[in-house]
Specification:
With about 140 residues, the protein is an alpha+beta fold. The protein folds into 2 domains: about 5-40; about 55-135, no CATH class. The chain is about 35% helix and about 10% strand. The chain has 5 helices and 3 strands. Strands 2-1-3 form a 3-stranded antiparallel sheet, with no helix packed on it. Strand 1 (about 5-10) and strand 2 form a beta hairpin. It is elongated. The relative contact order is 0.10.
């Protein structure tokens, strides 16, 4: 069941349209849900790839994932943490985790973050973030 993305030349907005079959999509004249225009141009849609947990973990074990990682650079550490979260296929919904990554990516040092967030992941085994603070990374 295909879903196609379209761009409206009149209101300059993007919309997605669901069709039951590919042939229905090729025969249909889509209408913009925002301005009711028929002046739509089909876009290349995003593609989602479903991978097994084993494939995601294997991708994380690839040494090239850590190429250029400077453990002294908080921005690089934040990018790596975000990429690992993404590779696991589960975006982290924990506000504290996201705040830590955002602050690392802005260049704040792990020590400053830990000092300003004393209750960071208190429930983690061993206390502190990841069980022992940022030193675990």
């Amino acid at each position: 069941m295909p879903i196609y993305d379209f761009y409206c030349s009149n209101c300059r907005r993007r919309s997605s349209h669901f069709f039951r079959t590919i042939s229905a999509a090729s025969e249909a004249v889509p209408i913009c849900p925002h301005c009711q225009s028929e002046n739509l141009r089909r876009l290349v849609s995003k593609v989602a790839v479903v991978r097994s947990e084993e494939a995601r973990l294997e991708a994380m074990s690839d040494p090239s994932m850590f190429a250029g990682l400077d453990e002294e650079d908080p921005r690089a550490l934040g990018r790596m943490m975000r990429q690992m979260s993404s590779e696991l296929g589960e975006e982290m919904d924990d506000p504290e985790f996201n705040e830590v990554i955002d602050r690392l990516e802005s260049g704040q040092s792990p020590e400053d973050i830990e000092a300003s967030m004393p209750g960071l992941a208190e429930g983690a085994e061993g206390g502190g973030f990841g069980g022992g603070g940022f030193d675990d990374f």
